[in-house]
Amino acid sequence: MEKETILNVGFDDTDSPKGMCTTFLAYKIVDSLQKQKIEFLDFPRLIRFNPNIPWKTRGNGAVSFKIKTKAPSKIKNQIKNLVSKYSDIKNGANPGLVFFESDTIPIQFTKFSKLALWQLINRNNAKTFAKRNNLEIYYQGNGQGLVGAIGAIGYDFDDHTLELLSYRKKSKFGTERKISIKSVKDMQEKTFPNTFNSFDTKKGRIMITPHGPDPVFYGVRGENVDSLVYATKILKTTEKLDGYMIFKSNQGTGDHLENELNFENMKPYASGKISGVVSNMPKIVKGGHVFFKIISKNHEFWCGVYKPTGMTTIASHLLKGDEICVGGGVRKASKNFPRIINLEFVDVISLVKNTTLSNPECKKCNKKMKSKGLNQGFQCIRCGKKSSKKISTEISREIKKQLYLPIISAHRHLTRPLQRIGTVNKSSKFDKSISWFCVYGK
After folding, report:
1. What is the DSSP secondary structure assignment for residue 432, as one 8-state letter?
2. Considering the domain 255-351+397-413 in this protein, what is its CATH number?
3. Tens digit of each residue's pLDDT (9 = 90 or more) over 261-282
4. CATH entry 3.40.640.10 includes domain 161-249
5. Which CATH architecture has domain 5-156?
6. Three-state DSSP state, 188
7. pLDDT tens, 155-184?
């Protein structure tokens, strides 16, 4: 009797700006394996890595899944063929595919994955890792996809969300997506707080539909399977869709900003957070963007808050001496600008008092006194009463001690929305009977 093998499969970089989608490839692979009665041991995993990588496509997401099979060699060949078929290599995709046979994932995989979450990892490092750990790999182009493929297998969830991705029929790829705005609003209201970031009420903008030529029609993010499947029944479109698949993901967890940045690790494209004290008055530049500096552990760092985030008003009201924690991605230094942290959140920890000095007031006449000259004090011109110094008045601050996030339209895939602050989703029961995968009838 053939022995059953636990097979971990990871792949990435199968798409390009002109089309295709790594999650659609996963959908096609799962469809093929489901028909062969292959046993899935967990949800397919959609892992979003460092969003500041300059050559990423869209959400920088890689996919992995774990299956039980008696014919691993046959399954591997089938997956290789599907990766070749559904990768947009002619438009710049650099697919990477990794196979790892084991029920447990070694710690070195997890470390590699966590690093890919906030740093830039060279593809040669991924090839070296694969060789050192005897991984079976397959890649085309320059092999950049191996980074995400290894990382997706190794990712260890402290918190997670789920995403239901609904796919289009091939004849509709590249055409306009038409979905009822009212149905998206209704869905968000009826499934809250178990779904998030579906509709931006301030901008009146649908957040679940992409705009490119890829096969995804919409993606709904949430906390559990039932809420996501319920969402599909509320959403209204005239387009006949192909089917959907639910992924376990790190979206909405803010995991890419958990690492503490410092003078040594603040390399270009790194992501993370840093605590410090505002060291200058914020400057508003052309376009409405705001820049200021913070001091952290005796080093000074520039921070940038850009108009589209909706956080520029908050940043402009910071004062020298305010204690804050900020998170974001490090922008490479240029000829005109130093290295800057592009902010994705501002957490105000403490605020200095905002005071102003003014001429004293004559209590008898209820009028401001006039200065008598340099170092000569002040005098009421009506009754002659004198005073020696100006008075200090505290002005109320325009910001509070709290966490400030960008507007929903400016959230990244990994941004932890306000409704998820304090929420940790440790376990979503994977039940083979639950509708985590569905291909609609003809």
Report:
1. T
2. 2.40.50.1010
3. 999 999 999 999 999 999 999 9
4. no
5. 2-Layer Sandwich (3.30)
6. helix
7. 999 999 999 999 999 999 989 999 999 999
